[in-house]
Amino acid sequence: MIRLRASLGFLVVCSVALLSCSSSHSDRIVVGSKNFTESFILGELIAQQIESHTSLKVERRFYLAGTYICQQAMLAGRIDIYPEYTGTALTAILKQGISRDKQDVYQRVKSEYERRLGLTLGPAFGFNDTFAMEIRGEDARRLNVRTLSQAARFTPQWHAGFGYEFMERPDGYRGLVATYGLHFAEQPRIMDLGLLARALKDRRIDFAGGNATDGLIPALDLVALEDDRHYFPPYEAVPVIRQQTLQLYPEIARVLADLGGKISNVEMQKMNYAVDAQHRDTQDVVREFLKSKGLVP
User: Fold this and answer.
1) What CA–CA distance (Å, rounded) separates 109 from 176?
2) Under CATH, to which class is 12-128+235-292 assigned?
3) Share of the chain above pLDDT 70, in %
4) Cβ(184)–Cβ(164) below 8 Å
5) What percent of the chain has pLDDT over 90?
6) What pLDDT digit, counting tens, does each position of 3-34 carry?
7) What is the C-alpha to C-alpha distance for residues 277 and 27, in angstroms, rounded to an integer?
8) Is the domain defined by 131-224 classed in CATH 3.40.50.620?
9) Where are the beta strands (DSSP E) in the chain?
């Protein structure tokens, strides 16, 4: 009943937002992102692609906290496009049950976004950034731990850290610990996503909830444990676009379609590494990637 009331409340909020979702920035396209490196990179990728192949002006509104803030900004017409993940949209926004089929997840999200929210999805970028439960490489080798099932034996002695959103979302912490029988030495620490890998390396925590394409995993000698019970759904990265924006500027659909399937997991991890570990400028990293794919001169 609590979940039902929450879902109904969500629909009411969305309905009200849709009534006033007319854009107040008709002279430009506003691209948003969440508050972590990969989302920032994908937002910049979208922005540069539009700037390179259309005459439209682009405004960047990056680091907009998490999923719910970006979603509300879309519904209110404050941003036109932002990068999202299909599994996140399915479970955290639409409150639907988990599916393991990536095509099913993509189509369900696209259909429901169009029917209920006035939003749609562009083609998937090509990589799946699933959640990655990480430990130090030295611990993985010493204990011979490769999977989450194997890690459950040791977690009562470990201190864990997760992002706030992961602790709250339906495909997050509660389901994870129930699926694998995980118990930690104390209540997990709630940390900014960008701090988790460093905290793990510095031994402030022993187990971190990160992302599979995090560039710091190889850089800091971390190990992403295998989700051997297949708890997490697919998390294909996709551009979410306001349908009203596409009606006004149909050329956006064409230029974003050119990004479909262009980024592999390894390529995304390399871009994350360039920004997080090498401290390179995000615009330069994105420009080089687009050039390597023949998308810009």
Assistant:
1) 22
2) alpha beta
3) 92
4) no
5) 84
6) 333 333 444 344 434 434 455 567 799 999 99
7) 37
8) no
9) 29-32, 58-61, 81-85, 119-121, 131-136, 160-162, 189-190, 207-211, 222-224, 237-242
What is the predicted pLDDT for the residue at 2?
Answer: 34
Amino acid at 249: Y
CB 222 within 8 A of CB 199: no
Is this prediction's pTM over 0.85?
A: no
- Structure token digits, residue 95: 């409150």
Place of tokens 């002695």: 157
Distance CA 171, CA 209 (A): 12
Cα separation of 230 and 90, whole Å?
Answer: 16
Contact 14, 73 (CB under 8 A): no
Tell me if domain 12-128+235-292 and domain 131-224 are identical in fold. yes
Domain ranges of the chain: 12-128+235-292, 131-224
